[in-house]
Description:
By secondary structure, this protein is α+β, with helices and mostly antiparallel strands. It has helices at 14-30, 41-48, 58-75, 91-102, 107-119, 128-137, 142-150, 152-168, 189-197; strands at 4-9, 33-38, 175-178, 181-184. The chain is 57% helix and 10% strand.
Amino acid sequence: MSKVIDYYLTLISPWTYLGSQRLAEIAARHGAEVRVTPVNFGEVFPRTGGLPLAKRAPERQAYRMMELKRWRKHLDIPINLEPKFFPANDRLAACMVLAAAETGGKPLELAQAFGKAVWEQERDIADEDTCKAIAQETGHDAEALLAKAQEEATQKRYDKQTEDAIARGVFGAPSYVYKDEIFWGQDRLDFLDRALSEG
């Protein structure tokens, strides 16, 4: 494929989840490849001027909740506004997504399933058994994927992708990069769609 979208995400972002299906549809329509690239935004935020949710001003937290309600209604996606297992350490799940990409699996589908687990199903993606179950549900060999995710090389790749994301100018999730142009946020998907239409 000549069109490639680098998709920088964290699996626990509601915005990542809200945009995930539309991204898949846009990419399919344009015949574009999506390189699913989970990164550690716990490292990205302090180095790019961002703050984790708990440290943001009350006004910003309140507006975030208002926007989540708007987008939930607009997209008709039944997300829980305050899920039971949020925030969660998504490192293992992220490395399983990387492992799926490296072994011919379905990384985009797996990433979507992890997002759904957090935002719709009240499941803890920091839990190894939960991660294995989700991998199995998406048609992967859960044990093999887990073993690959836990390899030192996969762990190092996750860390390197985080560094690479910062070097490219990524500061928030989700970010879609096409031809070195960053589209930050699921509310920028229309602009990504137009860029793909232009070639």
